[in-house]
Write a structure and sequence with these properties.
The complex is a heterodimer of chains A (about 120) and B (about 110). Chain A has no helices and eleven strands. Chain A is about 0% helix and about 55% strand. Chain A is mainly beta. Chain B is mainly beta. Chain B contains no helices and eleven strands. In chain B, a hairpin with a 2-residue loop joins strand 6 and strand 7. Chain B is globular. Classes of the chains: A mainly beta (about 120), B mainly beta (about 110).
Chain lengths: ~120, ~110
């Protein structure tokens, strides 16, 4: 299947700092990328949907000024967690979908720990 | 009520057993359906798409009942490596731009 990478795979940061997570589609053009968050033993929660070249659409309850999403090219989307707090500690997973496709391909995830 | 509902399990079955998972969805406009599998602390991986006519891939069989808004996954001759969480996924609406909704997953544990 298609390959999606995420970087970094694991990050520890101090409270109040910002963290940027990159999501790349390596062998296809991702017109749509999704960002999810998953707490331990819980289901994936969609945070936002981003289409290349346009603003992201955030799910209810997700602060767009706290979770900045940029999808500047067909192969790269970034999620920046601004002014991180311990409660932002979670597993962040991106997925990518090609134009006219229903299938999503997931990145390996980024484990964020805010101390 | 959640838009996509699954029995959370856990299902604990012996190796070689047949196990079935069910999933119901509430939005009748949903058009495409998938089963994903997620291993502990890993990302979800597509297991199979679910077609109206039902489809089979080796030991895995997926069925869709649009009238009942019900999806199933059957695993035959289960292996230890089948232990994972199985996610039912529904594409709400009829285009690739529609939102995809994940069920909360069913945990499966295969014992020797």
């Amino acid at each position: 299947g298609a390959v999606v990478s995420q970087h970094p795979s694991r990050v520890i940061c101090k409270s109040g700092t910002s963290v940027k997570i990159e999501c790349r589609s390596l062998d296809f053009q991702a017109t749509t990328m999704f960002w999810y968050r998953q707490f331990p033993k819980k289901s994936l929660m969609l945070m936002a949907t981003s289409n290349e070249g346009s603003k992201a659409t955030y799910e209810q309850g997700v602060e767009k000024d706290k979770f900045l999403i940029n999808h500047a090219s067909l192969t790269l989307s970034t999620l920046t967690v601004t002014s991180a707090h311990p409660e932002d500690s979670s597993f962040y997973i991106c997925s990518a979908r090609a134009r006219s496709s229903y299938e999503q391909y997931f990145g390996p995830g980024t484990r964020l720990t805010v101390t | 009520r959640k838009e996509v509902e699954q029995d959370p399990g856990p299902f604990n079955v012996p190796e070689g057993a047949t196990v079935a998972f069910n999933c119901t969805y509430s939005n009748s406009a949903s058009q495409s359906f998938f089963w994903y599998r997620q291993d502990c602390r890993k990302e979800p991986k597509l297991l199979m798409s679910v077609y109206s006519s039902g489809n089979e891939d080796g030991r895995f069989t997926a069925q869709l009942n649009r009238a009942s808004q019900y999806i199933s996954l059957l695993i035959r001759d289960s292996k230890l490596s089948d232990s994972a969480t199985y996610l039912c996924v529904v594409n709400r609406g009829g285009s690739s731009a529609s939102k995809i909704i994940f069920g909360s997953g069913t945990r499966l544990s295969i014992r020797p």
